[in-house]
Amino acid sequence: MNLSIILPTYNERDAINTLITEIYELLEVQPFTFEIIVVDDNSRDGTYHAVAEKWKGNPRIRPLLREKEKGLATAILHGIRQSAGEKIIVMDTDFNHPPKLIPLLVNITDYFEIASCSRYVIGGGMETSRFRFIGSKIFNKFVHYTLKMQTTDNLSGYYCFKREVLDGIPAEKIFFGYGDYFIRFLYVMQRMKHPIIEIPVIYKDRLGGLSKTNLKSELFRYFRSVVKIKLGLWKLQ
Known about the structure:
Layout: E1 3-9, H1 16-27, E2 34-40, H2 47-54, E3 61-65, H3 72-82, E4 87-90, H4 102-108, E5 114-118, E6 125-126, H5 130-147, E7 159-162, H6 180-191, E8 196-200, E9 202-203, H7 215-230
Parallel strand pairs: 1-2, 1-4, 2-3, 5-8, 6-9
Antiparallel strand pairs: 4-7, 5-7
Helix pairs in contact: 5-7
């Protein structure tokens, strides 16, 4: 298996099958094998059942239901551990992350171990709230200077990496919480000297589902995570 795409979901019934269809049609003409793994945290709107019914009998689409555990980061890790791809892509399921970038991410990771999308490199941006764009950019500057990060967008969460970069790493110490896991992931990868390249992305308006992010509370969570890393209160080993 060349590629595994991890789609964590919670109350995304309105848009998830549209997204899967777009990804599927994009990838079935590519010269590599793929699987799409949907990890659902027992959504009240029946997201898991909608996917399971729509794609029943298609081995490339693998819906996974988590009935007890919840959380974005642990859902992603669960998907990674259940996947078979040599390369792994993680993306949002509300169309914030444009699927058209998937082939580029796959091709770039032939040369770099990690390819991450950024709203803050030339060509990137957001078509959504300008307030959220500015707030996120300011926070990313804080992360950049506090942790001496080379990456410009440490909250993107749209990325591709070679499975081998997680070899020997206690991944459960990275993949917990919400979007703050991605700060830890990039921090560890840079400290381990894994080559990372950023490519521009423009965030679109979300389609369907429920927003899982409260900007103020999440920025506080992210701030706390950065401070813990800086003060040595969080360590990988």
